[in-house]
Fold these 2 entries.
Entry 1:
Amino acid sequence: MVLELNRSELHPDPIEQLKRWLRIAKESVNPEPTAMTLATVDAEGRPATRVVLLKEIASEGLVFFTNYESDKARQLDHNPWCALNFFWPETDRQAGFRGRVAKITRAESEAYFSTRPRDHQIGAWTSAQSRPVADRAELESRQSAIEQRFASGEIPCPPHWGGFRIAPEEAWFWQRRPGRLHDRFRYTMLPGRTWRIERLNP
Ligand SMILES: Cc1cc2nc3c(=O)[nH]c(=O)nc-3n(C[C@H](O)[C@H](O)[C@H](O)COP(=O)(O)O)c2cc1C
């Protein structure tokens, strides 16, 4: 597939541009179109990356959910700057954002948590994400204990679980083109939440 990306077709707001590309990625065979590699830095300035899922997209930013005691959350507590990157091989596209995160409200996290499948809810209670665990058996026995604890009724959102919203200050969109002359545009936020758009060398 040979697609192009032209300045004239770019939405003036990168979040709206992301929505357009996500819509197309969701119609493709990509099994995880909302998967994004999230980069954070630790207290020593060393980067770390992992994949998370984009769960909400609004003009204020991009939301993902995680364990607030995980490595990524501790890194974001220390330094709220992060970068993220989508790659959609079906359309030969990637896109990225840089910005600062803030935790969403407890009510927002609870509202989303209540929509999750029950086994995901149990998993959020079971996993002390990013901490060492002796063996698989320990995890499974913790899971059984959580299942018994919440055997009836709704499972509440764990206090250590919730969302982060990334407010982008920079974004970029990349479209593969033949001969390595790819189309590439960068959005930079200007005062007043307007965006400067520049074509970059590939
Ligand atoms: C496709 C995919 C989606 C994932 N989605 C999430 C997610 O939304 N939230 C999350 O905390 N971890 C998610 N994970 C697991 C993370 O990649 C990671 O292993 C975990 O969050 C621990 O990261 P940390 O120790 O750097 O904090 C996902 C993994 C994959 C492969």
Note: Residues 32, 35, 48, 50-53, 64-67, 70-72, 129-130 surround flavin mononucleotide (CB under 6 Å).
Entry 2:
Amino acid sequence: MIHSSADARRLAKRRLPWMVFDYIDGAAGADEAGAARNRAAFDALTLRPRILRDVSERDLSAEVFGKRTKAPFGISPMGMCNLSGPGADRMLARLAAREEVPLGVSTVASTPLEDLIEEAQGNAWFQLYFTGDGSETFKLVERAKAAGYETLVLTVDVPEVGRRPRELRHGFTMPFRIGPRQFLDFALHPRWSISSLLAGKPDMANFQMDGFAFDRTASRAKADWSTLARLREAWPGNLVVKGVLDAEDAGRLKAEGVDAIQVSSHGARQLESAPAPIRVLPDIRQAVGADFPLFYDTGLRSGEDVVKAYSQGATFTFLGRVLQFAIAAGGEDGLDRLWSILKSETSITLAQIGATALPPEV
Ligand SMILES: Cc1cc2nc3c(=O)[nH]c(=O)nc-3n(C[C@H](O)[C@H](O)[C@H](O)COP(=O)(O)O)c2cc1C
């Protein structure tokens, strides 16, 4: 039974092949010190419990680009989600539709971007990786526009894919290369293997069309400020830049006309020595001013974490790995269960600190 995100992770660890679990759970560096730093930073922050304030009516909604959500968090873009369970992308899309929260549709999603915005009933944002010389990238932008996407998220913290030794040790590649070690791994996790086999192996669906090619590990290093300017020209809708950890960069992004910034260390998957994003959030808030939309992801594991992110300056938050663990642990029911647990944890936390809405008034 899932009672917390830690329960979902524990069950996922049991059910997923090691290769898949460590691809999702892994972080940058041999010691994954960045992931530990994030956790320690959240734990070191405390919330101030205030009393006798009538907190009987509490509102968990947030406003994102002029729309009200039903939850204080959305779904961060994650590549190849169907590895956590067949149909995972679509489960997440249905959840986004129900909760009226943004679903981040990764460049390397397992399901075509056109299908996901439909399943999410419009509650989907397209996440873009700049790759190679950019020609594929700008084709994808046009495709997203044609599919009806109104918000584009440019991820900037992957100039090169970070080395994640836990993932590399199992020989994780897409498409799978199945040697004796992987064969044993799949054989020891039959529930996952049989259902994934029946569903057809997960792939990078946005590239199975004529004229599209993508190498997950290809360099994305050529992007610079002129790329952003070009994208700003090409994209009339909302433009979000994800993976920002520096106040100076944030100030420049605002000046360049982006509509929102997402503070994130990519779930500690890129630079092991990156600062904990929750620590730099207040400085970034200061750099962009009180009213600028500032989103946060990385390391959110509980409702208390979510409330902390809002109290440090976020106007909206995004969940990552925990959602994939919930799917691996219990399919769509597991996902819905963890989502409602996190909402209820957030609501209870607000009550304990004498607040009725986000961001909490302190
Ligand atoms: C398995 C996996 C795949 C991911 N793929 C992408 C991606 O394709 N694009 C992207 O912008 N971020 C990607 N991310 C990063 C997430 O959007 C998010 O920043 C991160 O997971 C948040 O940290 P958390 O998992 O600790 O909550 C991925 C993360 C994971 C765990």
Note: The chain has a mean pLDDT of 95.
